[in-house]
Structures are given as C-alpha cells and as structure tokens.
Amino acid sequence: MDRAILAALNEERRARRPVALATDTASGDSRLILAAGFAGDALADEIAGAMASRSACMHQPERGLFVKVYLPQPRLIVVGAVHIAQSLAAMAAMTELDVVIVDPRGAFASGARFDSFEIHEAWPQDHLASHPLDARTALVALSHNPDIDDPALLAACTSPAFYIGALGSRKSHAARTGRLAKAGLSAAQIARIEAPIGLDIGSVTPAEIAVSILASLIAARHGTARHLAAGGSVAA
C-alpha cells in the first residue's frame, strides 16, 4: 500500500471516521474513500454492501475488486464510576466495546476499581468537549448525581450516539426531564434517553442491573425489534 494512503487511512481511523479502501486485485492499486464521499462514489453500492456485512468487506473476484470498510470500534462512555459501572465495564469489554470511564470524583475513578480500563477523572462536559460522541458510541449516566449526569446527557442528546441511558426511577427521571428541558433540550431529544435504564428483567444487584443495561445497549446497537418496541423507556 502506498505510504500516503496508509497515513491518510490511519488518520481517519484515529479520528473515528469511517473510511473505505478499494483495491484492484490485479494491479494492487488502492484508493481511499472518505466517509463524506461514500454516497457519491462510483463504488457506493459496494461500500454499502461491505458495511452491511459482518466482516465489513466486499470481494468481487469477477471484477478484480476488493473493498474494505474500516469502521470505528464501538465505544461505551460510562459516566459515574459506581458499583454498577464496575460490572458493566467488564461485561461490555467482553462484547468488544471500548469502555471509557468518566467521573470527576477521584475516589471513584481509580485504577484500583477499574483495572485495565481507560479512566478520566474529569467532568463529563469537559471530557466530551474534546472527545465528542459519534454514531458508534453509547453513553450511560450512572452517577445518580445531577451535577455529573445532566451535563453528560445534554451532550449525548444532541449527538448521534446510538444509545443513551440514565440510572434512576421514573420519578427521578421526570425531575431530570424538567431540568434538561429547562437547559434547552427538546422533547424529542430527551425521549432518546432510556430511563429507567435497561431491559425489565427484574434486576436488583449491581451485576444484574449491568446485564440489563448491556442487553438494552446491544439491542439498540443492532436495531432489534424488542428495543424499538420498548420506545426507549423500560424498567430496570
């Protein structure tokens, strides 16, 4: 592969932008197709086919063509380094989600509690300002502290994040809804928040609640009928 193409490919991947690489299998020549140009490219159908496949590849030997789409790794931002977050982080990593823990409270956001995970001892609004949410990112607000959760939800609801969830009862979410509306979010934006968070499986313990959250997140990621029918609000 040409070094300039490789450098450009790596830059797009670092920026978490989808990018496609089309290769002529006879000559070995390759060209890079940026996400902004997917729809208008001559290989738009092939790119769409590759993105729909599990491997994100499209090989057409009869045309001497190989298309590989590089998609950002699915990511989970966990706001609030609480007990549920410890179980959720471990389970989410097993489903190949990149997990990031964000909490301004150093006593919670520590390596001793979240060994091997990326941890940011920061206010979520500060972290998300430099790490914006994209369409392959989910955010869950678990601190149960409005000063921490609300800014994260404000950022998430105006982003293309594929899943947004918040811990709390229906009563606490009603109060949260009022605060978010006062802060400028529309009813449609607030409705994107799944609260109470997670599938209604009767979960009680932190680990069980983490299972319900991850199940709902996976359903949202794959657009399953169950999650769509839930309307983004199920009990936990």
From TrEMBL:
InterPro entries: MoCofactor_Util/Proc, XdhC_Rossmann_dom
Identification of the protein by name: XdhC Rossmann domain-containing protein
Tree of life domain: Bacteria
XdhC Rossmann domain segment(s): 76-216
